[in-house]
Amino acid sequence: MIKGIGLDLIELKRIRHLINRKPKFADRILTESEKDIYDSLGERRKIEFLAGRFSAKEAFAKANGTGIGSKLSFLDIEILKTQEGKPFIFRPYSQNVHLSITHTSEYAAAQVIIEDI
Question: Where is each 4'-phosphopantetheinyl transferase domain found (predicted)?
Answer without folding.
Answer: 4-110
